[in-house]
Amino acid sequence: MKMNSYTTPRRNYKHRKIGMTYQQSSCATTTPRMSPMPNKRLRSHHTTTPRAVTTAPRNIVQTTENNDRYIPSRRHSMNIEVCRRALNWNEKEEKKKQDGKNPLQKEFQRRMMSSLCNLPVGALNEDCQPSGFLSFGNRNKEQSQILLGNNENNNTPRGILERPESHDTLRTVLLQHSREDDTSDARFLKKKMHRKINNEPFKVFSAPIVNDFYLNHISWGANNILATACGTELILWNAMSGTSQHFFTTDDPEKLITSVSWLPSISSNAIAIGMSDSSIHLYDVEHHMHVRQFYGHDKRVASLAWCGQTLSSGSHDTSILQHDIRCRRSVHSYIGHGMEICSLKWNEESMTLASGANDNTICLWDASMSGQRFHNKKFGTTSPRLRLTEHTAAVKALDWCPFQRNLLASGGGNNDKTIKFWDTCSGKLKNSMKTESQVSSIVWAKDARELCTAHGSNDNQLKLWKYPTMELFKELDGHDSRVLGMEMSPDGSSVVSVSADETLQFWNVFETPKMTRSSSSSALWGELSFGVPSIR
Fold this sequence. Notes:
Methylamine Dehydrogenase, Chain H; mainly beta; 10% helix; 3 domains
């Protein structure tokens, strides 16, 4: 009997891969993901772990990890100012504004927009808008590169920003190249405006000045009156009316006027006069009345300076006294110099006093340190906050910078002949400039980064400098002897120099500040430049 063979059904080996599935992933290599294993308490010891398959399917695409976003960089292909202006531009309103302007005003606006948006002038149309920017239509590659500021052609100007983060501020466009057929743009931006400065003084007065380097002979008040100490006499000259008057004469021929200083107020006509007998007199010029007399020094008073209602005086006895004009006695004393004090200057905030002396030093005093009052005929004394000792001769020329705080300019005498600039916070010497003669006075321009210096022996002239380069761009020769001092006019356009040749000479050296160019200022001060036509 033939027996039928029994064949065992072929097992489906796919069941062995139960729980094992392949999954495409974004990773570079993939492995089979196993299903969660059952609880160990329910799993029998006869069960075996399925064998993991290490070969990945061929259809898996490998990608870069964590690279699901793409952010383009428009740093070199987009002008932020142009984009902002294009979004905020109202075509109708802008065209109405442009219709009322003449060609000169339109061209000026185009150049201003070129500087503000860092674009060449050629990329702006007559309406002061970028040509074809964000408009639908074809534009060749050269026009696009010019508009975006990325033109690589050397024949086309390209604007360069000094700092990438300065796109929200006004800035200067530096031209790297200029086209041969359009050189007017470069000339317009590179052109320097030079003003005319007359080589001769526009007015000269004769005055019998005492030839003493350490005295302060002149003071030009805010009321536009120039006070001049001529030995025993005080002469006042009114710049508005052009008249002069004899105001004061000492009762003793040997009693000389050694310093004068106006109270710095437009409505005030008070003037302080320092004498060779150590006394100080306060006068009301308008009423011709003697107001008060101050004592406290032992020798002549060579320098005076005002700080509100307080008068500072420097003497040959090496001391600086503070006088409150509302009382008769001195309220404070500054002790720090070793020889005669020949210059005093308060800063604009009236917080720091700078003093120069014949001991070749500059001392800086804080107003907050002089709060002590007069008690029992003894007043408080203060030591200087800083002592500057870089000069090698007497320091008479002192002036505070009007546009930068804590910057002081000083000039040395005949053995020094230098102009120095100081940081009064730290006492650090920022710059030193060697000149050919002694420096007797320094004044800063009110509306420009310039300064004027008066010089004594060897040169006997006035010099104009650019700051901070200290470029000498003008020398004014007019005196026959050394210049002893210099004062600036209230409007800031002119200076007067006093010399040992017994003359007062008036010079137009600075531009008139903008705040004094209005009609209201003209009505207040009268005719500027002492009644003569101004060259500006």
